[in-house]
Amino acid sequence: MKRNRTWFGLFSLVTATLIFGGPNVWAADFPSEQIRLIVPWKPGGSTDISARKLQPYLEQELGVTVVVENMPGGAGKKGMSRVYRAEPDGYTLIIEAEPTVIMGQVLNAEPTYDVSKLSLLYGWISMPRTVAVNSESKHKTFAELLDASQKAEITIGGVGLGTLSHMQSVLLREMGLEHRYVPFGSGGKAKAAGLGGHVDAIVAATLAVKSNVDAGTIRVLAIHATEPTPGFEGVPTLQDLGYEGMSMTMDIGIAGPPGMDEKTMLILEQAIERAVNNPKFLAEAKEDDTPLGLRNRKQWNDRVATLLSNVEASLPLLKAEMEAQQ
What is the pLDDT of residue 23? Predict the structure, then answer.
């Protein structure tokens, strides 16, 4: 009798769950263990910062531990390749910074991943790029930096070769800002070089330099955008300075390996969407002037496809610059 009562109790519990558990009961088997959220760069950069700000809210929505794991190497290629080969079970995901990882793919003669085949889940940040200097720099404006570049060699630091930082450097040179581009292994190292005066200026995303701007240690000379950026009031855009249509953003999203099933992708998409719409998350983003650009799965797939097309159109210029660096 005891066995029957136990079985009956279990049956009743399962039945009640099926009846009253709500529309997501079919998803109860996922997730059931820790999720790894891989950042394919070293700590301290804007992608890493974005991941760590999202992590507690995503963990809350999924109900399991979400671990942010840095896996630097090859300008993002090591982490991207690792996730690309992972089991498509939803437990290994990656923070993708676009178009940087696209550039890592198209510039590689033998790419180890294909962004278009990833299980793209959600995009939530779209941040403009900046041209910035140490607050003690003699260059007070973009015009002064431009003028100095015509008279003597100046250096501009950024993250890696064949990256968004490198592409920004190429475009700045096309605008007349002559310089030698100095690649670093991470956004944190590039920023440290700028703070230490080891390079004349740096190119970086707004989020990467915001805390330093607030602390008065970094001065942004121009924002690579066509419209003003919250939190950078008074800083001219390149559009303001007469460079029409000059906009460059880094878009951040989450993806999984190719071949993830529809149920798992939907669970993750909905969890991310709830996380980034959490009132507390939105309040923190506003306080930090984080430039949100919320894109659901379809919108994020469309955005990545557009960036892939844009990068492919810019390849000749970037490849020529990379050859000159070697």
Answer: 39
